[in-house]
Specification:
Chain lengths: 920, 245
């Protein structure tokens, strides 16, 4: 506080005595406060005792009825500030003197309130300092500062600007209330961060102006003085990135690809205050086929995340577990802000996945009073390549209206080569016949999509309108060949065909949503949905004639079209308080379908009306507790493959045929959830229930011939039902060093299909549960998990098909941080498969381990040795129950391999770059 | 001032501190209503939080009431009637200040759990300035609290409201605090309504503790440090809870 800025009219005199006492360190100050006439004492006046050298409030008092106050304080020099609402405040000085123990001010007269006048004179050199309107501008470059100077050093050089030891800035004697950077509060918590950390070289000009106080909620036009630092264009730039490469250098060979294992990753992001630019590249022939979730977030690779469908908990990147993969991904992202009204985004990505999958399976087919087996060996080699371009344009048309346009385009190319060997066997495992089936397909296609949205808010709060239009066009052409050889007991059969398929659709959707508040708690929501479009599928099958594939096979060729026109209106009432949300509504829809068969020129017309009710309730009594209940209905169209009336003979032993009479299904869905977390104790529980009931579900009607070959046709069935319930909890113990997590789940399903025209209902109840223990110390984390799963499927068609089975899993994870930048990470998983078909009761033990060390002062360079599947047992083993068929299946995966991995993270400021380990 | 060289510009600026119809009375009981305005962009500098917060929703307003008589005051969150997005982003703690016994009961809202802490009234070193502004019709003087090296908090107190109380547990000035602001304006509390028409009833000033454990500050700090100190978000949680202390 500047003493010379205090307006005072009266100075209290103090007595100086000659007699001193070095021991008297206490000072007693007292006085009596009177009004401006000096005739009346003032009670309740606020008397503050302020230490002069640092302006600290030492004590304060209210004057009593007689207008008196009295302080006993340690000896110092003080300001006595006396305030009373009816008078001008009074400031007195009390100079501490060891010889004076008491200061009495018997008569203090308050002043009459006055209006202040102040005069400020500014002068300057036009070249360096000038006024622009009401703004005082300093041109930063005209004031010389040292090479590494910060803004504060610059400010000290500016005439008229003063900075005190606390960083408080005054301009022309008047306090600066706010420091802005480019008109905005750029830095987190404190303006001195800006003045002390921003390089002076980055500042173009310093501007001082007055603006209306933002924090002024009292409704008055108070003005504060602000300092705005205008930065040079390049001052807010930066970059960060990551590069990593891993290989085994072919030292521990890869029997599957005869190629050394490798994983390479490159991510780079460059930003300034408007633009953001990222490039990325990933290439691997290990199961690691995507970026870590944290990296995708950090580098803004939004669309890579969406398409992979990975969960945010999977921190180490998606792993391909369906065969032997080889992956390459690359692309760029670019975002730019257009002034303050718009945003534009562009991204391109290239994806190439090669997958070599070898599967073996044993299926048991249950018929009325007998059963038979097939043993299948499948080799599938696929190569998929895609190019994707997404654009995104957002504009604020006015303060209430936003427009968003999102076009996207993708090109896909796929090559698959599939060889399947079906070996049919009787119940006693006596071979009946064998087929070898070769399918080769080359496909080429594109998807184009345009999504435009106008969102409008209104002056009336909570009234909203959204208009959305989506255009989607897809076309995919496939050239394929089919070669089969079947050996029966006394004859052979073969197929040699070429196929040309053309699949596609062209769909338009328009959606209007309007929300109208009816009262503080009630809201009406109206939605109108319009869909119009068609899907098509053209199949041409050719058999060889005179050396070329020129003979069209009419029974396997067709041109088929499914047109639809759908209208749906939904009315929803919403009741909303700060703890409860209740929604109830109903939709009406009409869909008109035309399944047109070009060959034979026949049409099947359908017009279907549905009532679609929905309801939800949401309760949140506090931050840690949530209860949700949700019921809704919906109706989905069958896929074009389900309605195409011409058979698909890609496996001639298992023909599939669609059904043009198929109706859309109707699904009731019910969800219930309850979660609670007590923050202080750390205990939590989660629980839920999901159930669906489907009428007109799409099921198969399968005909078996005497040899066990099948023809499956899609039909509608009623009453398919599935439900699952789950619950779990966490209990921290011993100051959170140990956490115990039990979990439980139960599932039930009931599905109908037809076998040789007879109804078969499959019931599948299953139950699972487990317990995990997590130990957490500062440098060591260990978790142990055990899970058990039991399933007992049953079908009404054949009582022998009841084949219960179980799986047990034991997991362990271990993370140990040791000195000198070392870290050891290991995890193991032991799976016990029981009650499967013989040969599938395998127990699998997979152990992975890593030892790493961080280098550089920042720890940004990490060298690691990884060992995967140390026991060489990795396998994907699954059991599927499908109607009257029970299949045990395993897929070969990459087993044991080792990698030496070097990772480097970097940024412009050469500081520590964090790996985000979680969502916090 | 006397000019030296160059083109001389002379400006005469006249500042008039306008006299408002200011409150000229003393008050010792009643209720003060505050609006807290939080700039979420400044509160959350983390990259991830930035994705939730944009130019349109960066300002979040919450309402509070401070009900008091000459010895007890209660500072409470006023829940809005309608649901808000991102209600979880800002704190909603309750403070009971007992000026007679110089104690403070704080009920922290810790991720939905109420945590009860009773300790002595916080002692802060205030610096008194000569800067003044009117808030809600009261002439207030600005005081500064230097919390630590990088954080300064401004408070505006009204000498006419006698009890030494304020929002969010702030107190210790010669009058009730009607405005609190962090220096960067990231979080500010300003009184927007006062009601001195009636003294609050005893029930309104009574804290319901029930069977809950009451910590003192040291115990709570130790417990949280032990429980959450090794998590990466533990630090942020402390900062949130002890932001004002």
């Amino acid at each position: 506080m500047k003493t010379n800025r205090i307006l005072f009219a009266f100075i209290c005199a103090f007595a100086v005595c000659c007699s001193t006492s070095i021991y008297s360190q206490t000072l007693s100050i007292s006085g009596i406060v009177n009004d401006s006439t000096g005739t009346k004492t003032l009670s309740k006046s606020a008397v503050s005792l302020i230490r002069l050298n640092d302006s600290t409030l030492v004590q304060f008092q209210r004057t009593d009825e007689k207008g008196t106050f009295h302080f006993d304080v340690a000896l110092d020099t003080f300001i006595v500030l006396i305030e009373h609402p009816q008078f001008e405040h009074k400031t007195l000085y009390v100079l501490g003197n060891p010889s004076e123990k008491t200061v009495e001010i018997p008569f203090i007269r308050m002043g009459v309130k006055v209006k202040n006048l102040a005069e400020v004179v500014v002068q300057g050199n036009k070249n360096r300092i000038y006024y622009k309107g009401d703004t005082l501008v300093y041109v930063a470059d005209s004031f010389k500062v040292a090479e590494n100077a910060v803004v504060e050093d610059l400010l000290k050089k500016l005439p008229g600007i003063k900075i005190d030891e606390n960083g408080q800035i005054t301009s022309q004697g008047r306090e600066i209330s706010q420091v802005l950077v480019d008109g905005d509060e750029f830095f987190g918590s404190d303006p001195t961060i800006a003045t002390k950390n921003l390089a002076a070289k980055g500042v173009e000009s310093v501007q001082i102006y007055e603006k209306k106080a933002q924090d002024n909620t009292s409704g008055m036009d108070e003005k504060i003085q602000v300092m705005d630092l205008k930065l040079k264009a390049d001052a807010k730039q930066g970059y960060f990135g990551k590069a990593s490469f891993a290989t085994d250098a072919g030292l521990i060979g890869n029997p599957t690809t005869n190629f050394p294992f490798y994983e390479g990753e490159l991510l780079f992001n460059r930003f300034d205050n408007k633009q953001k630019f990222s490039v990325f590249l990933l290439s691997s022939n290990t199961p690691r086929s995507n970026f870590r979730f944290g990296d995708m977030n950090k580098f803004g690779l939004e669309n890579e995340r969406d398409q992979s469908g990975m969960s945010m908990w999977n921190q180490n990147g998606q792993r391909t577990n369906t065969g032997i993969p080889q992956t390459t991904k690359a692309g760029i992202y670019f975002n730019d802000r257009i002034k303050d009204w718009g945003k534009i985004g562009f991204n391109y990505s290239f994806n190439q996945n090669r997958l070599n999958a070898t599967q073996s399976s044993l299926s048991q087919y249950f018929l009325q009073d007998t059963s038979y087996y097939t043993k299948d060996s499948i080799s599938n080699i696929s190569l998929n390549t895609s190019h994707k371009v997404n654009l995104n344009f957002q504009a604020k048309l006015d303060s209430l209206t936003t427009l968003e346009i999102k076009p996207s385009l993708s090109f896909d190319e796929g090559i698959t080569e599939n060889t399947t060997i079906n070996a049919f066997q009787t119940e006693a495992m006596v071979p009946t016949f064998t087929s070898v089936i070769d399918n080769t397909n080359n496909s080429n296609g594109y998807t184009a999509r345009l999504e435009s949205t106008i969102y409008r808010m209104f002056k009336k709060p909570r009234r909203e309108l959204e208009l959305k239009y989506i255009l989607n066009k897809t076309d995919n052409q496939t050239d394929g060949s089919l070669l089969t050889q079947s050996k029966f007991a006394n004859f052979t059969d073969s197929i040699d065909q070429k196929k040309q398929n053309d699949n596609g659709n062209q769909l338009n959707y328009a959606i209007v949503t309007y929300k109208e508040p009816l009262s503080a708690k009630w809201k009406l929501q109206l939605e109108y949905y319009l869909e119009s479009g068609k899907s098509y599928q053209t199949r041409n099958t050719f058999a060889p004639m005179l050396g070329t594939y020129s003979q069209r096979v009419d029974s396997l060729s067709n041109a088929f079209e499914n047109s639809r026109f759908q209208n749906r209106g939904t009315l929803l009432m919403v009741y909303e308080t700060n703890q409860h949300t209740f929604n109830v509504g109903v939709g009406f829809r009409n869909i008109q379908l035309d399944n047109y068969n070009a060959i034979g020129d026949s049409s099947i017309l359908q017009s279907i009306n549905n009532v679609l009710p929905r309801m939800s309730y949401n309760y949140k009594p506090g931050m840690g507790t949530r209860l949700n209940f949700n019921y809704f209905t919906r109706s989905d169209q069958p896929s074009i493959n389900d309605i195409q009336p011409v058979p698909d003979n890609s496996n001639p032993n298992r023909l599939k045929i669609g059904n043009a009479d198929l109706k859309p299904n109707y699904i009731h869905t019910l969800n219930f959830q309850f979660n609670r977390w007590e923050a202080l104790s750390g205990r939590y529980i989660w629980s839920g229930l999901n159930a669906t009931l489907t009428d007109n579900a799409f099921a198969t009607d399968t005909y078996f011939d005497a040899l066990g070959r099948t023809i499956a046709k899609t039909v509608n069935v009623d009453g398919n039902f599935s439900a699952n319930a789950y619950a779990g909890a966490g209990f921290p113990l011993f100051n959170r060093k140990l956490e115990v997590n039990p979990n439980f789940n139960a599932n039930y399903s009931k599905f109908t299909n037809y076998i040789n025209g007879q109804e078969n209902i499959t019931y599948n109840p299953s139950i699972g549960g487990g317990l995990s223990l997590e130990l957490k110390f500062d440098s060591l984390e260990v978790s142990v998990t055990q899970n058990y799963f039991y399933s007992s499927p049953k079908s009404t068609f054949n009582s022998l098909s009841s084949t219960p089975f179980s799986t047990q899993e034991y997991d362990m994870e271990f993370k140990w941080t040791i000195p000198f930048g070392f870290k050891i990470i290991a995890d193991g998983k032991y799976t016990i498969n029981s009650q499967r078909a013989s040969g599938f009761n395998r127990n699998i033990f997979v152990i992975n381990a890593e030892i790493q060390r961080a280098f550089l002062p920042t720890g940004n360079l990490i060298l690691a040795v990884n060992g995967y599947d140390l026991l060489n047992q990795n396998l994907n083993l699954q059991r599927q129950v499908n109607g009257n068929v029970v299949t045990d299946n395993y897929t070969r995966l990459i087993t044991r391999y080792f990698l030496l991995k070097l990772t480097y993270r970097f940024n412009k400021n050469k500081t520590k770059e964090d790996d985000f380990e979680g969502w916090y | 001032m006397i000019s030296k060289a160059g083109i001389k510009l002379l400006f005469l600026l006249v500042f008039l501190s306008v006299e408002f119809a200011a409150q000229c009375q003393f008050y010792a009981t009643g209720t003060i209503f505050y609006t807290r305005r939080t700039n979420l962009q400044k509160r959350f500098t983390d990259q991830r939080m930035k994705r939730f917060v944009n130019e349109d929703n960066k300002i979040k307003n919450d309402r509070f009431s401070l009900t008091f008589n000459d010895t007890v005051s209660v500072f409470k969150y006023i829940a809005p009637n309608v649901q808000e997005d991102m209600a979880w982003l800002t704190s909603k703690n309750q403070y009971y200040q007992y000026l007679g016994s110089q104690k403070q009961l704080t009920i922290f809202q810790f991720f939905g759990t109420s945590v009860y802490v009773k300790d002595s009234l916080p002692e802060r070193k205030w610096k008194i300035t000569d800067s003044k502004r009117a808030i809600c019709g009261f002439q207030c003087r600005k005081a500064i609290y230097q919390k630590n090296d990088s954080t300064r908090i401004y408070a505006w107190y009204a000498p006419n409201i006698v009890p030494s109380i304020g929002p969010e547990g702030f107190c210790g000035l010669p009058g009730a605090i009607l405005g609190i602001a962090t220096e960067d304006g990231g979080i500010i509390y300003f009184a927007d309504k006062v009601d001195f028409s009636e003294a609050p009833t005893q029930e309104k000033l009574l804290a319901e503790i029930g069977k809950n454990k009451v910590f003192n500050l040291k115990e709570l700090r130790e417990k949280l440090e032990k429980d959450y100190g090794n998590t990466p978000w533990g630090k942020r949680m402390f900062d949130d809870m002890f932001r004002w202390l």
